[in-house]
């Protein structure tokens, strides 16, 4: 009897879904959720936790950002206390966080604008950057705090110009998927990362986008005139909205 009561109680407890990218945003009518293979970067992005509804975008100093008008949600991830994690840096951060959680340390590597290859394994093994060279100066440390210090190093010397060169061009925009990046290198350049994709029966796609900005700010999921779902077929009015085009579409692999 006691076991039956416990089972009944368990069945009556409402299932609380995690507040993440996939669960927060209602899929548009006529569309279905795109699939991302288990363990992939896309699946990881879809599961990104979000801060409570109504949380504004803030700069690294704590001020509400000038981009807050376009905030649909805020990714629950630190931004540090320096003006470092800007647009390309947010994309680099998301990709690196995924690889770090997978313990795929060898894959965490980004080029500086100078062309210097800055990989996490060197940094974690105690090497430090000096004039486009590694110098052994510290003890081995693969901890998360040391990973974040490595991230700040990359943010300091990489940007849209270097990241654009590292990403691969997506030749067929109909194959757009979660984890793809719209990017234009420059001073200033800008980029957005695709957090989720939905598709209708005619294979038309809509997608969620995220960005950081200058000065460094929270990674924000974007909306245009209240709508978080973007499309290659519709002009966007958000800042740098012209980048939401097949001409700027790239991916990590």
Radius of gyration: 20 Å
Shape summary: globular
Q: Can you count the helices?
A: 7
How many domain modules? 1
Tell me, rounded to a whole number, the average pLDDT.
93
Q: Uncertain regions: pLDDT < 50 for 5+ in a row?
A: 4-12
State the separation between the terminal residues, measured CA to CA: 55 Å
**Beta-strand content estimate:** 15-25%
| Structure summary, number of beta strands | 12
Main beta-sheet strand count, sense and barrel state: 8 strands, antiparallel
Query: Structural class of the helices, strands and pairings?
Result: alpha+beta
The topology string of helices and strands comes to HHEHEHEEHEEHHEEEEEE
Keyphrases for this structure?
253 residues, alpha+beta, eight-stranded antiparallel β-sheet, two-stranded antiparallel sheet, globular
Describe the secondary-structure layout:
Layout: H1 2-12, H2 21-24, E1 31-33, H3 41-46, E2 71-74, H4 87-101, E3 109-111, E4 117-119, H5 120-124, E5 127-129, E6 134-136, H6 144-157, H7 160-166, E7 168-169, E8 181-184, E9 190-200, E10 205-211, E11 220-222, E12 249-251
Antiparallel strand pairs: 1-9, 2-11, 3-4, 5-6, 7-12, 8-9, 8-12, 9-10, 10-11
